[in-house]
Write a structure and sequence with these properties.
Shape: globular
Structural class: mainly beta
Order of helices and strands: EEEEEEEEEEEEEHEEEEEEEEEEEEE
Distance between the termini: 29 Å
Strand order of the largest sheet: 3-26-25-24
Number of helices: 1
Largest sheet: 4 strands, antiparallel
Number of strands: 26
Length: about 400
C-alpha cells in the first residue's frame, strides 16, 4: 500500500511502499485457512481507451459542466488532469499544490453533488513528518485554496486519504494511520482511521478518531491501508482496503484485500462482516502466497460492489515480497465483485495482463454500468480502459 519501510520516489508519482506491508516479518502464528476461490485470472471484456501518456492516478470526479477531472502527483507538485471527451484523452488543467520542500502523494478528489465545490485530500511528507491535508476548489477545480489539516504533523505514517460524504451530508475522511495503532498500544501496526465533520465545514472532530479496520486476532500483525468507501444503502457502508496476512504463509506475509461494513454511517464497524475480498493462491515452489494489493472499490450500476486490484499470482516464479517498492514488483490488474449479497465475492477476472509494471488502479462509473479504470504504468504513463 502506501507505507512499508520508507518513502520511495517513483517517476511521476510519489508513493511509499504499500501501506499495509509492514516492518520486517515476524515469526510465529498459525496460518489462516483459505475459504475462497483461487481461480486464475481470465479475460473480462475491457478495452483500451488510452495506452499511455498522462492521466489521473486512482481518483476521477465529474465536474458540474461534464468534464472529468483527476489528480496526479509528480512528487513535489499535485497536477490536475481533465478530459472533455469522457476519459478518451486528457489535458493538463493546472495544479492543486506545488512545493519543492514537500513530497505529495496519495491524492484523491471528491465533488459535492449539485455544486462546483471539489475537495482534494493528500498526504504530505516533509522534515520527517507526515500529515493529511485537504484543499478545496469552489469553481470546479479551476483554482484551489487550503481547507484544513486532518491529522499531523506526526512522525508515524498517516496517508492514503479517501473522502466520502455520508447520507446526512457529513464530510468524512478515511486514511491509513500508524499513529492510531501506536496510540492504542500497537506500534508497528497500521489501521484504517476515520474523522469527520458536521456537514462540510469546521473541525474534523464530529466522530472523534474512529478505528475502521484492523486485525483483531491475538498475535496477528495488522497492516491495513489504501481504503475506499462504498455506500450500500442508507447508512450502510463498506470499506475495502489492502492488508497483509495476519500470520505468515511460507515464512512471510503476502498482501490481501479486505472489507468491513458499518450500519451507522461509519460511527462503528461490524467486525462480524469483516471479509477477505481476495487472497491469491500459494506458489508451490516457495510455499509463499502471491499478493493482492492496491484495491479500489465502487458500486456498479447501483448493484454489486466491484474491486480492481494488483496481483502477481500469474507471475509463475516466487511471489514478490510485500515490502518490495511498487515499481519493482511484477503484477497484472484483476477484478472481483460481490455476488448474491455484499458478503460474498466472485472469482477473479482480468482487467489488464499486457504488461507487468502496474499500480493503483482506480474505477469510475461514467454512466450506469459504463465503467472506466485508470492504471498507473509509471514513468509518466497512465493507462485508461473501459468495460461497457
Amino acid at each position: 500500500m502506501n507505507k512499508k519501510f520508507g518513502i520511495v520516489t517513483v517517476s511521476l508519482i510519489f508513493t511509499a511502499s504499500l501501506s499495509a506491508c509492514g516492518p520486517s516479518e515476524e515469526a510465529g502464528g498459525s496460518q489462516e485457512s483459505v475459504v475462497r476461490s483461487e481461480d486464475a485470472l481470465s479475460g473480462a471484456g475491457w478495452t483500451v481507451l488510452q495506452a499511455g501518456g498522462p492521466a489521473p492516478i486512482r481518483s476521477i470526479i465529474r465536474r458540474s459542466d461534464g468534464w472529468l477531472l483527476g489528480p496526479r502527483s509528480n512528487g513535489h507538485e499535485i497536477e490536475v488532469w481533465a478530459s472533455s471527451n469522457n476519459g478518451v484523452s486528457w489535458f493538463r488543467h493546472g495544479s492543486v499544490a506545488n512545493n519543492p520542500a514537500v513530497d505529495f502523494g496519495d491524492v484523491t478528489m471528491l465533488r459535492v453533488p449539485g455544486t462546483a465545490t471539489i475537495f482534494c485530500a493528500f498526504r504530505e511528507h516533509s522534515n520527517g513528518q507526515f500529515r493529511v491535508t485537504v484543499t478545496r476548489s469552489d469553481n470546479d477545480g479551476n483554482s484551489w485554496v487550503y481547507d484544513s489539516t486532518v491529522v499531523g504533523p506526526v512522525s508515524r505514517f498517516v496517508g492514503a486519504p479517501f473522502l466520502f460524504i455520508r447520507g446526512n451530508g457529513d464530510l468524512q475522511v478515511y486514511y491509513d494511520s500508524e499513529q492510531l495503532a501506536a496510540t492504542n498500544g500497537y506500534p508497528g501496526h497500521q489501521w484504517i482511521a476515520m474523522q469527520g465533520r458536521n456537514g462540510r465545514t469546521g473541525p474534523w472532530t464530529a466522530y472523534g478518531v474512529v478505528t475502521v479496520s484492523r486485525e483483531n486476532a491475538a498475535g496477528a500483525l495488522s497492516r491495513e491501508g489504501m481504503p475506499t468507501v462504498v455506500q450500500l444503502g442508507g447508512d450502510r457502508l463498506m470499506v475495502v482496503n489492502e492488508g497483509v496476512e495476519p500470520f505468515t504463509t511460507g515464512g512471510v506475509r503476502a498482501n490481501v484485500v479486505n472489507s468491513i461494513q458499518s450500519w451507522d454511517g461509519g460511527r462503528t464497524w461490524d467486525y462480524s462482516l469483516r471479509r477477505t475480498v481476495y487472497r491469491a493462491p500459494i506458489h508451490s515452489g516457495s510455499g509463499r502466497r502471491y499478493n493482492a494489493y492496491a484495491p479500489y472499490a465502487i458500486r456498479v450500476g447501483n448493484g454489486p460492489v466491484g474491486v480492481a486490484f494488483c496481483t502477481d499470482e500469474d507471475k509463475g516464479t516466487t511471489p514478490d515480497l510485500a515490502s518490495t517498492p511498487p515499481e519493482q514488483r511484477q503484477c497484472h490488474v484483476g477484478y472481483v465483485s460481490t455476488t448474491t449479497n455484499f458478503e460474498t465475492w466472485s472469482g477473479t477476472s482480468a482487467i489488464w495482463t499486457g504488461s507487468t509494471q502496474n499500480y493503483t488502479p482506480g474505477l469510475f462509473e461514467r454512466s450506469l454500468n459504463d465503467v472506466i479504470v485508470t492504471i498507473d504504468a509509471f514513468y509518466g504513463n497512465q493507462r485508461v480502459m473501459r468495460r461497457p
